[in-house]
DNA sequence: TCATTATGTAAAA
DNA sequence: TTTACCTAATGAT
């Protein structure tokens, strides 16, 4: 259940395990039997993460493309692999290491043009040096769609998931429903810089931490949060709990088919306007 | 032991 | 906008 930083860590891990090695591939579950047969015996050149997509580039030009989706998972180890338990879509082995993949949304072999097409449909990835945040902002600023949905749209920003988007909107003081066209250039600069920083840190630590030092449990005298993803956050999955900054109850609502969370005080509905409310009727 | 939930996406309607 | 995907962890019973 990954956001972009998880895929970057997997890419680095798989590269360390298998790069330069001849890899044996199989599909104990059977659903990737054909692809595994084609792949088996190839030498891994390098791995790459692009957004939430993982690529293994093999000699001969073919690439293994994996997208974990909501519940895909990798497991790995040294030496002899264990007998497959459950639905193992793909198993890779060398003399030294083994790797199992379960439950992915995508596990397929791609030709070089197909890899290009994949990358062409992805937006700016905050973890990549070749990202173009200006292009992303050009899409955002002309859209009436809520920022929450725009920042989750992988064709605009790649690698962002629910936690990063939810938290970055809190840090920017913007409600998730704010239309893209209301995002100022300064607002976008703040959001992009936050994504680069927070996602970069998460690649190093393996968890998502979004809370400024001054609001950490030690600084505030509150108990630390133990959550599945392991990090300290402001609003993600904190519905009805007090805001770390102002104490107001965190709110939750369905938005674009996902759970969105925000603080009613720290993320005001909109800028205070001098224009009086229009009277109906 | 069963039901629900989950850091996601694509296809169907 | 809704449904399906199809795994594992968590929470309820």
TrEMBL record:
Annotated family: Belongs to the FPG family.
Keywords, sorted A to Z: DNA damage, DNA repair, DNA-binding, Glycosidase, Hydrolase, Lyase, Metal-binding, Multifunctional enzyme, Zinc, Zinc-finger
Enzyme class: lyase
Lineage: Bacteria, Bacillati, Actinomycetota, Actinomycetes, Micromonosporales
InterPro entries for this protein: DNA_glyclase_Znf_dom_DNA_BS (IPR015887), FPG_cat (IPR012319), FPG_N (IPR035937), H2TH_FPG (IPR015886), Ribosomal_uS13-like_H2TH (IPR010979), Znf_DNA_glyclase/AP_lyase (IPR000214), Znf_FPG/IleRS (IPR010663)
Ranges of residues in domain Formamidopyrimidine-DNA glycosylase catalytic: 1-105
Obligatory cofactor(s): Zn(2+)
Entries under Pfam families matching the protein: Fapy_DNA_glyco, H2TH, zf-FPG_IleRS
Residues covered by the FPG-type domain: 234-268
Protein name: DNA-(apurinic or apyrimidinic site) lyase
Enzymatic reactions: 2'-deoxyribonucleotide-(2'-deoxyribose 5'-phosphate)-2'-deoxyribonucleotide-DNA = a 3'-end 2'-deoxyribonucleotide-(2,3-dehydro-2,3-deoxyribose 5'-phosphate)-DNA + a 5'-end 5'-phospho-2'-deoxyribonucleoside-DNA + H(+)
Gene3D superfamilies for the chain: 1.10.8.50, MutM-like, N-terminal
E.C. designation(s): 4.2.99.18
Superkingdom to which the source organism belongs: Bacteria
